[in-house]
Write a structure and sequence with these properties.
Radius of gyration: 14 Å
Strand order of the largest sheet: 1-2-3-4-5
Number of domains: 1
Helix content: 25-40%
CATH superfamily: Gcn5-related N-acetyltransferase (GNAT)
CATH topology: Aminopeptidase
Number of strands: 5
Number of helices: 4
Oligomer: single chain
CATH architecture: 3-Layer(aba) Sandwich
Structural class: alpha+beta
Largest sheet: 5 strands, mixed
CATH class: Alpha Beta
Length: about 130
């Protein structure tokens, strides 16, 4: 397994993982997804097994203090193999930030395995 920065060739693998998770936002429009994953202030990394994308992480950052883990997923058949941790450990320094905030509704135990503080949060849908 190799972790590297996102290239457009990785997009189909990322979209497939999102579809398997029933996350419609990126798969709804591949061109928009690529624009999101490469936008200014965004760090996107992928975990590869050969040429196959087995995981990805997408973070937004101010480049100095604050980053936000917007999405991260590992292929269902590859979970609990250290891929998620490898993605975050590779991506964090690339953001330039001192800390990463995130929201999860499925992986609380995983994120608790990192040095952290827990806060209450909200997701607002304008």
């Amino acid at each position: 397994m190799n972790v590297t920065q996102y290239l457009e060739a990785h997009l189909p693998g990322i979209l497939a993982i999102c579809e398997a998770e029933d996350w419609p936002s990126l798969p709804a429009d591949a061109a928009r997804a690529h624009a999101v994953l490469t936008a200014p202030g965004v760090t996107t990394v992928v975990a590869l097994d050969g040429e196959q994308v087995v995981g990805f992480a997408y973070l937004q950052s101010d480049g100095h203090i604050q980053a936000h883990l917007s999405q991260m997923a590992v292929h269902r058949n590859r979970r609990r193999q250290g891929i998620g941790r490898a993605l975050l450990e590779y991506a964090a320094p690339l953001t330039g930030a001192q800390r990463i905030d995130l929201v999860t509704d499925t992986a609380e135990a995983f994120y608790k395995s990192f040095q952290h503080r827990t806060f209450s949060g909200f997701r607002i849908y304008p």
